[in-house]
């Protein structure tokens, strides 16, 4: 039942008109270690305003 409600809510999102007030950017930050790039992380936090998806990714190629 919960799955069905989540699926229905997701489908309803397709019907929402685009408007500047409901714009929610989704950002993937390729930072390396975020401890060494706090300014980049802060900038992305400001852009998403804490209401959107922000993913920080650290890749180690060893």
TrEMBL record:
The keyword Chaperone does not apply. GO terms for molecular function: sodium:potassium:chloride symporter activity. Its main location: membrane. It is a multi-pass membrane protein. Coiled coil: none annotated. GO terms for biological process: cell volume homeostasis; chloride ion homeostasis; potassium ion homeostasis; potassium ion import across plasma membrane; sodium ion homeostasis. It is found in: Membrane. PANTHER family: SODIUM CHLORIDE COTRANSPORTER 69, ISOFORM E, SOLUTE CARRIER FAMILY 12, CATION COTRANSPORTERS. This is Uncharacterized protein. The lineage of its organism: Eukaryota, Metazoa, Spiralia, Gnathifera, Rotifera.
